[in-house]
Specification:
The protein is of the alpha/beta class and 270 residues long. It is 30% helix and 23% strand.
């Protein structure tokens, strides 16, 4: 029987996996079953490109992916881009100024073939986050970067919740902000900033257009505040039982947590 779903779109952290060093066996089988049914899988994550590509590759996966909350869409198997959406001229500089008004220096993500991000000499993100960025990040004057480079997004990962809240208030309506728990740094916050009115769904629409897929026949899975538009627009929306309340409120149904391999339940909703 033909499935009414033409595409499955999934968040990664807290949805597809709990941590990126382990993928539940039932989830692996579910991914293979999607392939057998000829239903494409599209990743949609707040992660940057390389931190998306590497852990998926460790499990033998290279799906198309929307990274940085809708800023960039890349086919991980071929490297071909299908979506790019940087800040408009001048907007990134205003966001940087807001960060600095509360004494914070973010990671700034750029559209560059060599580097993925820039930091200042005094970055506010967690040292462990900086360690993960090694090889793909450079130190520079962030005012120059935001004035001259195509900017895809900003982040602070593994920071105090109060610092993230202060940044969110300072940025206000300048950009789209996402504040959530940090899975990699328990007890800390993850804060990402995208251009206004940008979401993961923008990348989904671009992918559907490229692949001639009906965007009204999408099943989406997500657990966080940066998945809201994704879950709102999908025909079927699934959220883990331990996901953010805003994600669960939009879900067609809830599934077991990523710790339990709950993603495999996707097969029940196709």
């Amino acid at each position: 029987m033909t499935s009414p779903m033409e595409l499955v779109v999934t968040d990664l952290d807290g949805t597809f996996w709990h941590t990126d060093d382990h993928l539940d066996d039932d989830v692996r089988r579910a991914v293979k079953e999607l392939e057998a049914r000829d239903i494409p899988l599209l990743v949609a994550t707040g992660r940057r490109l390389n931190s998306t590509r590497r852990p998926l590759a460790a499990f033998g996966l290279a799906p198309p992916a929307i990274v940085l909350n809708g800023a960039l869409g890349v086919d991980l198997a071929t490297g071909e881009r299908f979506h790019v959406s940087p800040y408009a001229d001048g907007e990134a500089a205003l966001v940087l100024r807001a960060f600095r008004e509360v004494g914070l220096d973010p990671v700034v993500y750029v559209d560059d073939v060599v580097l993925e991000a820039y930091v200042s000499t005094t970055p506010s993100t967690h040292p462990g986050h900086l360690k993960v960025l090694e090889g793909n990040v450079a130190t520079d004057d962030l005012e120059r970067v935001t004035a001259e480079e195509p900017i895809l997004g900003f982040s602070l990962i593994g920071v105090e919740h109060g610092d993230a809240v202060a940044a969110q208030k300072a940025i206000g309506s300048l950009a789209e902000t996402h504040l959530d728990r940090s899975i990699d740094f328990p007890g800390m916050a993850t804060f990402t900033v995208a251009p206004n009115d940008q979401s993961k769904w923008d990348g989904v629409v671009a992918f559907c257009s490229r692949m001639n897929i009906d965007s009204t026949r999408v099943l989406a899975l997500g657990d966080g505040t940066n998945d809201i538009e994704l879950l709102e627009e999908a025909r079927v929306a699934l959220a883990p039982t331990d996901g953010h309340s805003s994600a669960r409120a939009l879900a067609t149904a809830t599934i077991p947590s990523a710790k339990e391999g709950g993603w495999a339940a996707v097969l029940d909703y196709l």
